[in-house]
């Protein structure tokens, strides 16, 4: 997570950044399953569970949970897998977390051409 995306005290990144990442993985899922980028129709049950900070290393997951004629429902998650631990001597230092930290989850619906 680049420091240029930190907008709040404590180097916090806004939650909308996670939603943008979900859009990217939804596009990949649609291309893999339907051969088309699809269009995002809606999000439901968006949960911001833990902070994302500049310097974090994120892992984004997407699971296809329902397939309609043209709609695809997906569940998304952002996990923090490593956290920046910069010091004056080691500005690029980071630590892998013992357990990934669930930062954001959501359910989303996309539509693809019929």
Give an overview of the whole structure.
The protein is built from one helix and six strands. The strands form two sheets. A four-stranded antiparallel β-sheet has the order 3-6-5-4, covered by helices on one side. The protein is an alpha+beta fold. The chain has one helix spanning 16-34; strands at 6-8, 12-13, 39-48, 57-67, 71-84, 94-111. The chain is elongated, with a radius of gyration of 16 Å. A hairpin with a 3-residue loop joins strand 1 (6-8) and strand 2.
Main sheet characteristics: 4 strands, antiparallel
- Kindly provide the radius of gyration, computed on alpha-carbon positions and rounded to a whole number of angstroms: 16 Å
> How widely separated are the two ends?
37 Å
Shape: elongated
Measured as a percent range, the helix fraction is 10-25%
DSSP strand tally: 6
Share of residues in strands: over 45%
Helices and strands, in order, run as: EEHEEEE
The mean pLDDT is 91
Structural category is: alpha+beta
The main sheet orders its strands as 3-6-5-4
Please describe the structure with a list of short key phrases separated by commas or semicolons.
elongated, alpha+beta, 114 residues, 51% strand, 4-stranded antiparallel sheet, 6 strands
How would you briefly describe this protein structure?
It contains 1 helix and 6 strands, in the order ββαββββ. It starts with 5 loop residues before the first strand and ends with a strand.
Topology:
Elements: E1 6-8, E2 12-13, H1 16-34, E3 39-48, E4 57-67, E5 71-84, E6 94-111
Antiparallel strand pairs: 1-2, 3-6, 4-5, 5-6
């Amino acid at each position: 997570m680049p420091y240029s995306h930190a907008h709040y005290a404590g180097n916090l990144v806004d939650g909308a950044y996670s939603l943008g990442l979900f859009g990217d993985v939804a596009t990949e899922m649609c291309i893999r399953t339907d051969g088309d980028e699809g269009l995002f129709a809606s999000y439901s049950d968006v949960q911001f569970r833990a902070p994302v900070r500049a310097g974090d290393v994120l892992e984004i997951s997407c699971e296809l949970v329902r397939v309609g004629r043209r709609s695809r429902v997906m569940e998304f998650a952002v996990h923090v897998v490593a956290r920046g631990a910069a010091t004056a001597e080691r500005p690029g230092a980071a630590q892998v977390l013992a357990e990934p930290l669930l930062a954001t989850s959501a359910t989303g619906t996309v539509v693809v051409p019929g």
